[in-house]
Amino acid sequence: MTIQSACPCGSGEPYAACCLRFLEQRAEPKTAEELMRSRYSAFAKGHITYLKDTLWPRHQAGFDAGATAKWAEDNHWTGLTVLATEAGRAGDRDGTVLFEARYLAEGRLQVHRELSRFRKKAGRWYYVEALPEK
User: Fold this and answer.
1) What string of DSSP letters covers 63-75?
2) Rounded to whole angstroms, how far apart are CA atoms 44 and 68?
3) How many C-beta atoms surround the C-beta of residue 96 within 10 A?
4) Average pLDDT across the chain, whole number
5) For residue 99, what are the CA distances in angstroms to 40, 60, 66, 95?
6) Is residue 90 helix, strand or coil?
7) pTM of the entire structure?
8) Residue 2 pLDDT more than 70?
9) Cα–Cα distance for residue pair 6/11, rounded to 1 Å
10) Which domains does the chain show, CATH number per domain?
């Protein structure tokens, strides 16, 4: 995938204008959804440090970069669909995003559905945890 091709996050934007700027730390996501999309792209493109850096600070010490890198590399990421968002806008402090991430694992299509909680600290969005769906 070149930087001119579509972003893995499914936004329809070119990779360079969408998630690449976040993964290369040239910009910060302004919304919870942008952070969630960029984290999907990080899995798809192998930007494991970004996944750790955007994890809620209290959880970063327990992040297993090696296992995460292996899991990300062993799967072929095929698409992302954002199903719903609640709050998480630029002026909010908290937000949730319900999404489905699709990937091939050992030749079988898998769908990971998650309601993710995001929180802003010092003006920066972080992934906090997966929540039970309402």
Assistant:
1) --HHHHHHHHHHE
2) 12
3) 21
4) 95
5) 10, 23, 25, 13
6) coil
7) 0.94
8) no
9) 8
10) 15-131 (3.10.450.50)
